Amino acid sequence: MFDSITGLISQGGYFGILALMLLENLFPPIPSEVIMPLAGFLAARGELNIIGVVIAGTLGSFLGALPWYYAGALLGEKRMRRLAQRYGRWLTISGDDVTEAGIWFRAHGRKAVFFGRLVPAIRTLISVPAGIAHMPFRSFAFYTLAGSAIWTFLLALAGYLLHAEYDRVAEYLDPGSKIVLGVIVLVYLYRLVRNGHALRQR
């Protein structure tokens, strides 16, 4: 699986990284914690440029945040909560997730967008309350790009620096990645069932 994921990124190049990071913000088929380090591996092998990897990852993350920002701005908190309660189970989010992200945003202001991009649990959802609060787009774009750039740089750098241990990492990551993938699927199914159960109780 290690080779299959690196092969996917290698074939897609910078556009592939951008697309995967965009999707990671909408529906995470592969988390950024896997995408960017493996892209860093490929950069260390000379297949990609590390700067290009970071730029592609940052841009993909930024573009993936835009639909959530505009959804929050156009729909408002109440309708976003209703939509999350009704359809969010397929994206493994709930109305409570929207509310918690809003509370976090109101407590920290614009800084929440920057620091939120560095926190896996709220990286995606922090864009929703920013839109709901009608945060100026320029400010939203600046903080989102800045936070995303740091996040993608650190992940890509980790993969780049571990290149010397590529074979050893691959040896352990390949069977381990199957376990991780299994856990991701199980967590997704659990949240799917949990959110569906919560909906039935309302």
TrEMBL record:
InterPro entries per record: DedA_domain, VTT_dom
Domain VTT: 30-160
Keywords, ordered alphabetically: Cell membrane, Membrane, Transmembrane, Transmembrane helix
GO cellular component assignments: plasma membrane
Pfam families found in the cross-reference section: VTT_dom
Residue stretches spanning the membrane: 12-30, 50-71, 140-163, 175-193
Main location: membrane
Membrane topology recorded in Swiss-Prot or TrEMBL: Multi-pass membrane protein
Top-rank taxon: Bacteria
Compartment(s) of residence: Cell membrane
PANTHER family xref list: ALKALINE PHOSPHATASE LIKE PROTEIN, UNDECAPRENYL PHOSPHATE TRANSPORTER A
Protein name, as recorded: Alkaline phosphatase
